[in-house]
Amino acid sequence: MNKVFASADAAIHDIMDNATIMLGGFGLNGIPENSIAALVKKGVKGLTCISNNAGVDDFGLGLLLKTRQIRKMMSSYVGENAEFERQLLSGELEVDLIPQGTLATRIQMTGMGIPAFYTPAGYGTEIAEGKEVRKFNGKMYLMEHALHASFAIVKAWKGDTLGNLVFRKATRNFSTSMAKAGNITIAEVEELVQPGEIDPDDVHVAGVYVHRIFQGSAYEKRIERKTVKL
């Protein structure tokens, strides 16, 4: 099976309107920049995007929000995007805010084949509305379901043509779990190498989970919020 694609455009060719997509990264760190740009170019609409956050106004998922291509966001932090706020308050965007640990675990459970789990996070808040509640050892817990997606798109530092991936530091946040939770997993990498060039002990996501891979380019690697000490 040849997993290598020539470009982001080719790798996302069958993502259609109303698709559910997971997008890896943490803030602006380790996001699949080339794939997001390809989705903007393709013009698909009605997307449900599952991501730690919604990018910023002119970068990351903020680009898809700007072009009104996202119908629903499932995220844990969205405080850096003014356009997101505007669309939410105007009723243009459906939003499911999820506690960050719950979001990470719901994604992880899909890869582990576990359909649901119990967590205390969100009990007694609006998050608990409509969810099953059970008591364990005198403490109340919500039942949360595993989170699936038709496509999972991640960005890794290095990958080989078999789909084995290596991430750098915080960029593996969410991405390693998302890669195992999509029906089709697409990986863009900074460096694409041949099989055997990655030490098996260094692999963070095994190639069996990755269906498509391509070498990206022109990564900006922006800083979401600069803090300067005078």
Automatic annotation (TrEMBL):
InterPro entries: 3-oxoacid_CoA-transf_A, CoA_trans_fam_I, CoA_transf_BS, NagB/RpiA_transferase-like. GO terms for molecular function: succinyl-CoA:3-oxo-acid CoA-transferase activity. Keywords: Transferase. PANTHER family: KETOACID-COENZYME A TRANSFERASE, SUCCINYL-COA:3-KETOACID-COENZYME A TRANSFERASE. This is 3-oxoacid CoA-transferase subunit A.
